[in-house]
């Protein structure tokens, strides 16, 4: 009983601290509460986030603010067509000592940080994009045959322009799967845009301030994995993920006709963590079915693909995910 009480106390203390962090972030990133929630979700789960939106919507500002508020050492890389893998990972250079001796020395790249902002990641070539794969999954990089460990915690928050824009290279499926959530950054409504204008064009502007330390974030990530998840929620997660695999018995006719390939086990793992994070951010002690429905689109949409005929019809994956998720009934409720 005492252990359960301790867990409840720890969760409640973390919820209070997360509320402070959200307040600090929204002072500088105004009116996009859903975007802030999903970005914090990716950090709490120890994962990475992919922010998709047109230029000028504040994606860079959000990541810079997060770096300060969460107490993380951050670096920013502007991805361009001529960027090379060594520009991100680092490289070995030949140094000549005072005695004339020569030796190779490793110069760390910007990836050696705790929060890497990969700005406009889809403007770099596929070769450069793939340089992040090992780092995002294993938290290490291999350069010149030697494996080097990255700082802890390590997170990538990448921004991506819509693929319809000129000069973009679509991210490969293997890399998309490394992102815990896809975060769509939309245009603000009129009132929000007015608040942004007034807050950012005056003589003074709100400053970001630190709420977490890196050690506290790591402790929060460990605590999140200790949160209890009810059987009904676990079964709902499994049913939902499997329902989007065209050849699975749970897949309906709409999915079979629309989805070329569905999410794998990593998607179920990501959804399990994400629903816990949402419960924390909402001030609850355990996730509920509503959290599964809420997190389904950001967790699953980049882990699936439409068939050619579905693309020709103009079908939308996000709408399909929402439709199937809302139709899911937890096993206990069905009984």
Automatic annotation (TrEMBL):
Protein name: MoxR-like ATPase
Protein keywords: ATP-binding, Nucleotide-binding
Top-rank taxon, per record: Bacteria
Gene3D superfamilies: Magnesium chelatase subunit I, C-Terminal domain, P-loop containing nucleotide triphosphate hydrolases
Pfam families, per the entry: AAA_3, AAA_lid_2
Family named by the database record: Belongs to the MoxR family.
PANTHER family hit by this protein: MAGNESIUM-CHELATASE SUBUNIT CHLD, MOXR FAMILY PROTEIN
Organism name: Marivita hallyeonensis
Gene Ontology terms, MF aspect: ATP binding; ATP hydrolysis activity
Limits of the ChlI/MoxR AAA lid domain: 254-314
SUPFAM superfamilies: P-loop containing nucleoside triphosphate hydrolases
Phylogenetic classification of the source organism: Bacteria, Pseudomonadati, Pseudomonadota, Alphaproteobacteria, Rhodobacterales
InterPro entries, A to Z: ATPase_AAA-3, CbbQ/NirQ/NorQ/GpvN, ChlI/MoxR_AAA_lid, P-loop_NTPase
Domain (ATPase AAA-3) ranges: 48-181
């Amino acid at each position: 009983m005492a252990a359960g009480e301790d867990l409840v106390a720890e969760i409640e203390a973390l919820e209070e601290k997360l509320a402070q962090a959200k307040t600090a972030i929204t002072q500088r990133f105004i009116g996009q509460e859903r975007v802030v929630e999903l970005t914090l979700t990716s950090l709490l789960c120890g994962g990475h986030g992919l922010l998709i939106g047109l230029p000028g919507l504040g994606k860079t500002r959000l990541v810079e603010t997060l770096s300060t508020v969460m107490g993380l050492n951050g670096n920013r890389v502007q991805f361009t067509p001529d960027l090379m893998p060594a520009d991100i990972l680092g490289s070995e250079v030949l140094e000549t000592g005072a005695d004339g001796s020569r030796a190779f020395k490793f110069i760390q790249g910007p990836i050696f940080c705790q929060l890497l902002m990969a700005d406009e990641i889809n403007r770099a070539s596929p070769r450069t994009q793939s340089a992040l794969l090992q780092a995002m999954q294993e938290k290490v990089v291999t350069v010149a045959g030697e494996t080097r460990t990255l700082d802890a915690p390590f997170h990538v928050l990448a921004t991506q322009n819509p693929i319809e824009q000129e000069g973009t290279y679509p991210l490969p499926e293997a890399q998309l799967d490394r992102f815990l959530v896809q975060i769509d950054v939309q245009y603000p409504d009129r009132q929000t845009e007015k608040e942004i204008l007034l807050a950012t064009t005056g003589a003074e502007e709100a400053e970001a301030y630190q709420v977490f330390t890196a050690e506290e974030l790591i402790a929060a990530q460990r605590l999140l994995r200790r949160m209890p998840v009810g059987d009904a929620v676990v079964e709902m997660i499994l049913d939902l993920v499997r329902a989007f695999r065209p050849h699975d018995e749970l897949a309906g006719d709409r999915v079979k006709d629309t989805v070329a390939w569905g999410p794998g086990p990593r998607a179920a793992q990501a959804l399990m963590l994400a629903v816990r994070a949402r419960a924390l951010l909402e001030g609850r002690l355990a996730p509920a079915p509503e959290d599964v429905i809420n997190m389904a689109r950001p967790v699953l949409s980049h882990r699936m693909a439409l068939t050619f005929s579905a693309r020709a019809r103009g079908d939308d994956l996000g709408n399909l995910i929402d439709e199937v998720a809302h139709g899911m009934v937890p096993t206990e409720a069905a009984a």
